[in-house]
Amino acid sequence: MKTVDWGPMIRTYVIACVLLLLSLSAGSTGAEGTAGPAAACLQAGDVPPVAHALSDAPDDRLRPLRAEYFLDHTAAIGPDSIIAQAFQPRTCSGIFAAPLPSQALWLRFALSNPHDGTRHWAIGLMETIFDEVILFEEEGGTLSEVARTGRTVDLADRNNTAIRTGFDVTMQPEDDRVFYLRLAGTFAPTITAVIMSADLFFGWSTLKLIMTALFLGYVATIALFSLIVFRQIDVRFYQYYTLYVLCLFIYSFIYDGWLSKFFGVTLPVTKLAPVTEFFAGLGTLAIVQYCRVLLNVQEDTWVWRRLFTLLSAVVIVVIGLAVVDPWQLSGPLHLIYFISPLILLTIAIRKIMAGLPQAKPIACALLSLSLGLFIAVYFFIFPMNITGATYAYDLVLLRPLSWGYYLAIVGETLFMMMAISTMVRTMQTERRSAVVELATLGQQVKDIKQQHREAEKTTTARLEALETALADDPENKEHLSARQQFLEQATESVLDHIADQEFGVERLASALAVSQKTLGRRLKAANGQSPASFIRSVRLNFARNLILLDQYNTVAEVAHAAGFSSVSNFAKHYRQEFGEAPSRSISVLRSIQ
């Protein structure tokens, strides 16, 4: 079978991700003037806005909002003085550089209704997060407020409570009107303004609401599943994966506007952006630790363990940077958000080659995550033409930013479930094998014990027969020889374990295949000693020989070599046995030499 060389593919993907993230970072810092996409397709001349409208054609339900723009660097210019400002030429793409939190962006555009009947259109924004969006209409050289919405606006004051940001505009026949749109407080690096039919806007907003609700429900289900099931398998799965899924849920919950649209929370983007960046980074850290556990990296070499430690440290640092300033310092976090799955994918491929069963679905999960994020970022930097959208699902499909992210998360979680299932099956198989092996070993132990008991019964019976015969004929040389043979066997057994301080009466009886009671009776009849005294006597004689052969220099060395755990106890019994201290025996021997 041909081996796949993953190296060039991974290097190519890393380079592509780096280029995309660098482009994204450049776009996010281009809020000054017309940097990034806002500078594309400029039309020369500072002329009044050209009125545009939608026709009755089925494929003309959405167009980019060709508007002139003005960046208010202080966000202090009000509607009374904005008319006198010099607006920049309009763009044909409807894409504008987003203002920083301390700035505001003004768009000036005109609408006309050349049709006979009344037309209901919507001025919409493709992005999600806005603190405040206000629509003004110019009448007689002054501006009057038409509608407002945004996350910092109270629900009661909002003219639009849909999930998407936009305003309905009713145009009577022959109407020709000029509007100003003020936007402030967004986290996206660019703003895409469009004009669309009111029913398309309603359908699009409703479909997005359903999609975000389904996605949040799916993520919540996965979190609940991991909370209930994984903690029964391994607490580490419960800790890391549940944390990862909860971070996804909180990030999407805040980013998609549920706090604002449905709970009336009016926190500005300066408060929300650090929170979303924190949970995005925390989710990345959690999935790194989760893969470390699932891929058994702790059993790898120190190089790979250090790699995970380094990756975790980098993630923590970039989280801190992004939380401090999400607009200027979030680039490293976005970059590590893409690179970390590639690093984990490389390790997963290594584990596949090593035969780890759960490595294959983990690799598929990381590949799905990387692919979905790549799609989302690529089409965010290079957006598709959405002017041909006629239905809400067309508009969704032509904006891969959302569904690319959903694809990444859904694919990743599904494959991770498969990885967990594979790992659980492997653990169960190993557990069953261990149980069978343990049962076999237990049966073998039972058989050995049974054989030992039978041998003990046979030996005991033979010894009892010899004792009976010896009692009937004390002078029988055959029986005396058997008694001497038993003593020699006992002495040899003790000498075989002479250095083992744990070798006692029970183990001597087991070595001779007799019961302790029979051992005591036989030793008593043979030399008048108890088993303990017999073992001690053999040890003392062995120690005496060591001294006479000059094998050791100190009493402690002799005592330990003869199997005594206590030097003082050895010296006492040695003196009782031989009439002198062991130290005296050593010194006398040395003086003779």
Task: Note the main sheet.
Answer: 5 strands, antiparallel
Report the mean per-residue pLDDT as an integer.
79
Beta-strand residue percentage? 5-15%
DSSP summary: helix tally: 18
Structure class: alpha+beta
Q: Which percent bin holds the helix content? A: 55-70%
* Amino-to-carboxy terminus distance: 78 Å
Low-confidence blocks of residues: 1-48
Shape annotation: rod-shaped
Radius of gyration: 43 Å
> Can you write the helix and strand succession as a string?
HEEHEEEEEEEEHHHHHHHHHHHHHHHH
**Counted beta strands:** 10
Overall description:
The protein is an alpha+beta fold and 593 residues long. Strands 1, 3, 5, 8 and 10 form a five-stranded antiparallel beta sheet that branches. Strands 2-4-9-6-7 form a five-stranded antiparallel beta sheet. It is rod-shaped. The N terminus is likely disordered.
Helices and strands in order, then pairings?
Layout (H helix, E strand, L loop, with lengths): L5 H23 L33 E3 L3 E5 L6 H4 L12 E3 L6 E9 L6 E7 L6 E8 L2 E8 L15 E7 L4 E9 L5 E8 H36 L1 H21 L2 H6 L5 H26 L7 H23 L6 H24 L4 H23 L10 H6 L2 H73 L4 H20 L8 H7 L4 H12 L3 H18 L6 H7 L5 H12 L3 H11 L1
Antiparallel strand pairs: 1-10, 2-4, 3-10, 4-9, 5-8, 5-10, 6-7, 6-9
Helix pairs in contact: 1-8, 1-9, 3-4, 3-11, 4-6, 6-7, 6-8, 7-8, 8-9, 9-11, 12-14, 15-17
Describe this structure in a few short sentences.
With 593 residues, the protein is α+β, with helices and mostly antiparallel strands.
Essential attributes:
rod-shaped; 11% strand; 10 strands; 593 residues; 59% helix; alpha+beta; 5-stranded antiparallel β-sheet
